[in-house]
Amino acid sequence: MKLLMSTQNPKILEQGFEWIEAIKDFSFNWSVKTLQDSLGGSQFILYFCNQTDEQALGYILISPFLEHWEFLSLATHPNYLKQGIMTELVSHALQMAKRESIKAVFLEVHEQNGPALDFYKKNGFVINRTRFKYYLDGANALEMKTQI
Ligand SMILES: CC(C)(COP(=O)(O)OP(=O)(O)OC[C@H]1O[C@@H](n2cnc3c(N)ncnc32)[C@H](O)[C@@H]1OP(=O)(O)O)[C@@H](O)C(=O)NCCC(=O)NCCS
Q1: Model confidence over 62-88: pLDDT tens digits?
Q2: Average of per-residue pLDDT values in the chain
Q3: What distance in Å separates the CA atoms of residue 1 and residue 37, rounded to the nearest whole number?
Q4: Ligand 1 contacts CB of residue 91 (under 6 A)
Q5: How many domains does the chain have?
């Protein structure tokens, strides 16, 4: 696997990220287009690629804001779940944040997204506050945070 990072170029998402469209469910509604629209400013994407066919296996879209980062979106390819890919990506991201003297990382998660909640808790995130009726389906978002 190759770890890649892109800061400026939305075109990197044109190949190898199509599987994102297939994950759509009540708690995840990102598309290649919305990811592309998010790149190009200060936001950047950290992702693992397959050595051979440049297929992205997992990514984190990160938004830096002063001394904090926000994980805006993250996902692992549906064929590669529960193989440690996101654990490794998050670990890389947190090491990078530490090098840049970032104090904390925040994210929001749908309160019924059990796998993501389990994942975040296992990786050191704690619930910081609830954003009531945050999602279109009326569900709450849990804002989670980890100190660096
Ligand atoms: C959440 C997600 C990113 C985890 O990625 P992953 O690469 O499978 O995670 P890892 O293999 O690194 O970590 C596994 C850990 O995550 C949690 N986890 C992952 N899938 C889980 C599931 N289906 N049920 C419960 N816990 C789960 C567990 O804590 C697990 O540890 P365990 O294997 O010891 O039980 C992945 O499920 C995903 O892409 N979901 C769809 C997109 C999404 O919901 N993104 C988050 C939006 S806020």
Answers
A1: 999 999 999 999 999 999 999 999 999
A2: 93
A3: 26
A4: no
A5: 1
AA identity, residue 145 = K
> Which residue is it, tokens 């984190």?
60
Q: Whose CA is nearest to atom 1 of ligand 1?
A: 116
User: Mutation test of ligand 1: which of 48, 90, 119, 145 has the most ligand atoms closer than 8 Å to its C-beta?
Assistant: 119
Structure tokens at 137: 């389906």
Q: Can you state the percent helix, strand and coil of the chain, rounding each to 5?
A: 30, 35, 35
pLDDT of residue 25: 83
- Predicted local distance difference test score (pLDDT) of residue 51: 80
- What b/e readout covers 87-121, taking b as 16+ CB neighbours within 10 angstroms? eebbeebbeebeeeebeebbbbbbbebeebbebbe
Confidence (pLDDT) at 46: 93
Cβ neighbours, 10 Å, residue 41: 11
| CATH (domain of 28) | 3.40.630.30
